[in-house]
Design goal:
Radius of gyration: 28 Å
Helix content: 55-70%
Largest sheet: 7 strands, mixed
Number of helices: 21
Distance between the termini: 90 Å
Strand content: 5-15%
Oligomer: single chain
Order of helices and strands: EEHHHHEHEHEHEHEHHHHHHHHHHHHH
Strand order of the largest sheet: 1-4-3-2-5-6-7
Shape: elongated
């Protein structure tokens, strides 16, 4: 291969921005697509949700650029998002092919419909390409436009191409050989008719386990709080139980839709996290487009079930969705506002349970809920900060806390936990308890049990056994389950 010195080539006639080497080659160039090929992701969706998480109003305003074409939208999102190519989910199989081509002396180019600013960032970060091509603010380098540009530079059938999408069929048609990855069945069939010797890289389809992790099915246990009013009101009727269970289903589906949204907004921070980088969207196990398509389906199904339970329950469900969405976009970055919001979201579940079975909730129950859930929310923040301290990491960028706040956060968590016990003690001392329980004095046994559990949770978190979500830890913790069983036994004994 005979190569000329590296030169930037200004191509005024080309429909897109181009940065190429002026090269005379014998070896056939290899051209690689970016979205869905080199990376197991979509930069248009990534930049939109990243911008939405950092600058919600600007992201909404950027949609207006779509009136000037898709390329204008991409350029606008690229300018307002905090794009970082370091932690993108690169496909190791595609990287391997690129490295083999370079070792064979073949020039390799990155050609993408993503905005030129993003394409350049990826190319510069990897350092594997002899040049790159990307969309500018006026022209979208996709399909036929990309094919025409590549033919202009390398000639018809003068290059090999790796792609993944239906739009790449136009490029494969003028390529010397075709390599495909993550193609749909229809695209694969069309490509095989076009190139009888097309290479299809082996790929892993999303597994059921990945989908369950994406939907956070393990978090559904939190929605068991909707059963609390059923038990505290002693309303043991089949109709009430059915409504409560339907409410749990509605909240679970609604929560999953918000979890998807939250994961899309937090992609960049999740990928740099010690454990969250394994989440299905962050690691590329599930395509972003499928997650985006699933969100409205989950939400619509949730709202339909909520309306069936009752219009009042539907209103509470809408309030929960609005608050948790606000948390995902704004409130989780506000110091202490975030933990108050988390406590409120747990308490809303208790309120929803009361609305589902049409009972009036006690102020004592609501007060106890806010304090105990505030304690758990603060424990969650303590656990996150403790992990960063142990790993020698800097202060979190997506939370308004500093590692130096650990002691204060621990103190507030302990105080809130014991305040919940105080509220419980005041309730046991009130006249209202005598209406529901035959032996209300037995309920006093719950106070030391909950004090023990609260103190133990703080100690277990301090000893790094609680790494993130304290409720999930409690569900899996034998002592916590024993504590819950003891409290239930006390309630039954007082009732009988």
């Amino acid at each position: 291969m005979i190569a000329m010195p590296f030169q930037e080539v200004s191509v005024t006639s080309a429909p897109t921005s181009v940065l190429l080497r002026d090269v005379s080659v014998i070896a056939t160039p290899l051209v690689v697509d970016l979205d869905g090929t080199l990376i197991k992701s979509d930069l248009l969706l990534e930049t939109f949700f990243d911008a939405a998480g950092q600058h919600p109003l600007q992201a909404i305003g950027a949609i207006g650029a779509l009136g000037h074409g898709k390329a204008a939208l991409k350029a606008r999102l690229a300018s307002i998002s905090s794009f970082d190519p370091e932690f993108l989910p690169y496909d190791p199989a595609v990287i391997s092919i690129i490295e083999e081509a370079r070792q064979a002396g073949r020039p390799v180019y990155l050609a993408s419909a993503s905005n030129e600013q993003l394409v350049k960032s990826v190319a510069d970060h990897l350092g594997l390409f002899d040049g790159w091509m990307g969309s500018d603010s006026e022209r979208n380098l996709s399909g036929r436009r990309k094919a025409d540009l590549l033919v202009e530079k390398f000639g018809a059938h003068g290059f090999d191409y790796i792609g993944n999408d239906k739009a790449d069929l136009d490029v494969w048609q003028v390529a010397a050989s075709a390599i495909a990855v993550r193609t749909s069945a229809r695209t694969r069939h069309a490509l095989d008719k076009m190139h009888s010797h097309a290479v299809h890289l082996p790929e892993r389809t999303p597994t059921l386990k990945s989908w369950l992790r994406l939907l956070r099915v393990h978090q559904y246990v939190k929605n068991g709080l909707l059963l609390v009013p059923l038990m505290t009101a002693h309303l043991f009727q089949l109709t009430a139980l059915v409504h409560a269970l339907l409410g749990i289903v509605a909240f679970s589906l609604c929560a999953s839709s918000v979890y998807l949204l939250n994961d899309l907004v937090d992609l960049r921070s999740d990928r740099s996290h010690t454990t969250k980088h394994l989440r299905p969207l962050a690691c590329g196990a599930i395509p972003l487009g499928q997650a985006v398509a699933l969100m409205p389906v989950l939400l619509a199904t949730s709202m339909a079930i909520g309306w069936f339970v009752s219009p009042a329950f539907f209103a509470v469900l809408c309030g929960y969705y609005a608050l948790t969405t606000a948390y995902s976009f704004v409130l989780k970055r506000k110091m202490l506002v975030d933990v108050v919001t988390l406590a409120a979201l747990y308490s809303i579940r208790v309120i929803a349970g009361g609305v589902a079975i049409d009972v009036v909730l006690s102020e004592w129950l609501l007060g106890f809920s806010m304090f105990i859930f505030m304690s758990l929310a603060l424990i969650k923040r303590y656990a996150e900060l403790a992990v960063r301290l142990d790993l020698g990491l800097s202060d979190p960028t997506n939370r308004n806390y500093k590692i130096g706040d650990l002691q204060i956060v621990a103190t507030m968590a302990t105080v809130c936990g014991f305040n919940a016990v105080t509220v419980l003690a005041l309730y046991i001392s009130s006249p209202a308890v005598h209406v529901l329980y035959r032996e209300p004095r037995v309920l006093w046994l719950m106070c030391p049990v909950i004090m023990y559990w609260t103190g133990r949770m703080m100690l277990m978190t301090h000893r790094r056994f609680v790494t993130e979500d304290p409720i999930i830890f409690a569900v899996r913790d034998r002592v916590s389950l024993l504590t819950l069983g003891t409290c239930f036994t006390i309630l039954v004994a007082a009732y009988l």
